[in-house]
Amino acid sequence: MADGGYLGAGGRLAGGPADELVEAAYAHELRAAPRLAYDLSLSDIAHAVALAESGALPAETSRALLRGLLELHAIPAPEFPWQAGLGDAFNSREAELVRRIGNDAAGWLSAGRPRQRIATGSTTSCSNPSAATAMTLRRPWSCCCGR
Questions:
Q1: Number of domains into which the chain is organized
Q2: Range of the domain at 125
Q3: How does pLDDT run across 42-72, given as a tens digit for each residue?
Q4: What is the C-alpha to C-alpha distance for residues 147 and 137, in angstroms, rounded to an integer?
Q5: Is residue 2 domain-resident?
Q6: N or C: which end of the chain has fewer CB within 10 A?
Q7: Would residue 14 count as lying in a domain?
């Protein structure tokens, strides 16, 4: 979400979703957001660390991104500003990150990370969040590293 608003706004889409879609799909999906928040947060932090350690980001950008993600991580899940009008939990997290640190740093969060991998890797219910995070981190590179 380049502008911190609805994903796709300003591109081919003239606006956000219809109220019926927000209520029928997005609001329903966001009911799981508090349960998924911890794993989403760990996945985002781990990805940002990987970007920083690889040298893919300038040091200042890495610091801003990690600072913002740690701020989000500190928000208790029931108190997080989930917004059904933005779509899923990932969109709400990204919008809040943009609001806190700006798009220049927040925009890097999706770099090298297909969105579907995020959804399938970090939102899987798992009794071991560290294992879920490790699986999420391993998947993006498995196609090119042979692991």
A1: 1
A2: 19-140
A3: 999 999 999 999 999 999 999 999 999 999 9
A4: 12
A5: no
A6: C
A7: no
Domain of 63, CATH number, reads: 1.10.275.10
Percent of all residues in the chain with a pLDDT value above 70, rounded to a whole number: 69
Using DSSP, state whether 13 is helix, strand or coil. Answer: strand
Query: If residue 28 lies in a helix (H) or strand (E), which one and from where to where?
Result: helix 27-30
* Each residue's pLDDT tens digit, 94-125: 999 999 999 999 999 988 877 554 444 444 44
The amino acid that residue 61 corresponds to is T
Is residue 72 domain-resident? yes
Instruction: For residue 54, give both structure tokens.
Output: 């690889």
Give percent of the chain above pLDDT 90: 48
The tokens 């042979």 sit on which residue? 146
Whether the CB-CB separation of 88 and 120 falls below 8 Å is answered with: no
Which structure tokens are listed for 120?
């399938």
Say which amino acid occupies 9: A
